[in-house]
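quick one, two chains, predict together pls
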Amino acid sequence: MARPTPLSGFPEWLPDGRVVEQHVLEALRRTFELHGFAGIETRAVEPLDQLLRKGETSKEVYVLRRLQAEEGEDASEKQLGLHFDLTVPFARYVLENAGRLAFPFKRYQIQKVWRGERPQEGRFREFVQADIDVVGAGELPYHYEVELPLVMAEALGSLRAIGVPEVRILVNNRKVAEGFYRGLGLDDVEGVLRQVDKLDKIGPDAVAELLVAEQGATPEQAKACLELAAISGTDASVVEQVRALAASYDAVTDLLETGLGELRALVEAAARRAPGVVVADLKIARGLDYYTGSVYETVLVGHEQLGSICSGGRYDTLASDGKNTYPGVGLSIGVSRLVSRLLSAGLVTATRGVPTAVLVAVTDEETREASDAVAAALRARGVPADVAPTAAKFGKQIKYADRRGIPFVWFPGEQDQVKDIRSGDQVDADATTWEPPAADLWPRVVPAGE
Amino acid sequence: MARPTPLSGFPEWLPDGRVVEQHVLEALRRTFELHGFAGIETRAVEPLDQLLRKGETSKEVYVLRRLQAEEGEDASEKQLGLHFDLTVPFARYVLENAGRLAFPFKRYQIQKVWRGERPQEGRFREFVQADIDVVGAGELPYHYEVELPLVMAEALGSLRAIGVPEVRILVNNRKVAEGFYRGLGLDDVEGVLRQVDKLDKIGPDAVAELLVAEQGATPEQAKACLELAAISGTDASVVEQVRALAASYDAVTDLLETGLGELRALVEAAARRAPGVVVADLKIARGLDYYTGSVYETVLVGHEQLGSICSGGRYDTLASDGKNTYPGVGLSIGVSRLVSRLLSAGLVTATRGVPTAVLVAVTDEETREASDAVAAALRARGVPADVAPTAAKFGKQIKYADRRGIPFVWFPGEQDQVKDIRSGDQVDADATTWEPPAADLWPRVVPAGE
């Protein structure tokens, strides 16, 4: 077998990269759980017809086929595809288990998703997402639209300690955009949003041209859309700016006022609870058509060109089973993109790629059992320990530890000794009482350069 | 959308079942890490040609296809399939990263795998495996064949506290079987092993018939094979029994002696380090052809009909890149089967399905912020807290907590109070100092009935 090469779009980490990823996942999970989100995991596959309900993403689905499916057998089976996000499976899970869940249901879900992108784009085709959602049966109070982005801000903020840059959550409200566009006389709201969504990519002039050419806007309507998109700020003055703009175009509507009320509540609460984190940014459009209220995007300050690493919004109908509709609000972190960036930019590093804090040396194969006993005594007290693979010269055994970043080597004898191979300090020690410094017990993730 | 129904073979748990699964995964992971195994995760897909290298499992592969792949585009792309175990991807990972890994390389890997089984069999098509392997470059000392099953015994033993039954690891050595069969004059070793592997299913008489009919054995040779398979025991006397049996058939070979030496070392070391856990059982065959030394199966005592929940063995060639071959030894736990059994048999239970220890009540929507502040103060000290969704009557808010198994409800006021809703006790409390009893802080997994 020749040496295999990586598959483009399917990222994998070496052991020390995986330590970083695990740390990130655990930090996120801890914040989610402190806020009362229950963890669930759904199967990786969904019936193809469910995956294709939203047109936007259908082109990215991986379809499954059993290699040895017999002729005609699959005709009776549902065609399956890999999920491309965690929202579609969550909606299905909620419907399937509605009678056994308590609503409002707060859940987090951390899993891989797959997207069959064109190979040449260099985008991930397999990646980890970390989602939180709150879903109600029939109704869902507005205050969750304030709380959920703040939970994400706290989760991402817990990564500051390892060198993850500050985050800024950009918020908008779909009702504001829709109310404003309709007030202007532009009724193809989705079409307008789709063009505005291209602002960062192609710039305002090109967007204005598209609004005129493809949405049938007048130059003045296009100008108004761009003026709205240019408004941003961290306090309620944003709301006044939008209202003044709408008034100047005679475009104030009830829907706009409802949206502005919600946006104000969000910005004000966020300014109190997490000052500086949330910015109202009226150009945030979010391509997906199912958002009906607040929408969110999140950038790493100083790394805005990465795009949004955490997005989401409010949807009035996550799912519906005829008896109930299930409104919700949620956000999703693209964990693989974040971790990939942290590693490739050298922002963070793991102190070692193995859990082992102590390598127990082996004097000769006849006394391996004594070394095994030392390791067992250390592990029994929660100290990760490994035993040297062979009774090589001690210099070689120390090198084994050094190559792996294991900080301590233990020498069994009449009087056991333990050596810190970084400083060279070697002291008498007893496996039933000795402990490494807390900072050396497990691998840690730290800002690079520390 | 009509209420969806579960997909056969794709298990999912409700939140409290997921608490159990998470507990199991964390307990396993902790043991693996205490023993110095580094965690890795590989992508879910492998090139189809790699998945089909071993004939045995090829029938179970799920093949992927991009729904919108353009005509002819896929011709240049490698065909991909979902991995059906964690050994094939690990072998590829080792080859791909050989220059960046330190050998012997000890890794654990906990991931889902997929098998496109026939749907009507009621077997899992998606399930979680937890694997440990040690792999060397060029060589791998025998002592790892002793250590790895003991690590698994320790990992599974750490689940005794939650009600998982005792485990028994059944071991055999491929060299013993092969040496014995060849000594008898039966050279189609794999064929004989395949028949012997059916003993539990079809019984000794039917196996003897198959050995004669399909492997061309004489009735006496078949009888000898069954006599070997009937030998088992927990100490070195097993080795003497096999040797005596082989001598009686004049079937002693060098290979048999080598295998018996290894089996003796394993049984003796296991008897010292984990008395009663390891049983030499000469009928253990393991279907896969790549094992070359020790082989392992694991049963839950009292639930033997479940079959092996943790299997593996020694292989001389995990992978080879022309420059090096990579021998290894490893075992794999079928976590989903174990968790499914624990849940369906009612052996274990989670104390609650949400992380929340405290629900903070809301007196009226105007003071929601005060409730949010209490929850924030509790979370800052590591107490998982949720805030009531609406300012309903307190009775309804207590019911919200009760439905979710949340033990405490907090009432903000001039003097905050906290109520244990199980006992009804309500006391004054301060969110900056109060703590729940340790047993209530997080959901716990306990034997059912406790």
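The domain at 358-447 of chain B is CATH 3.40.50.800 (Rossmann fold).
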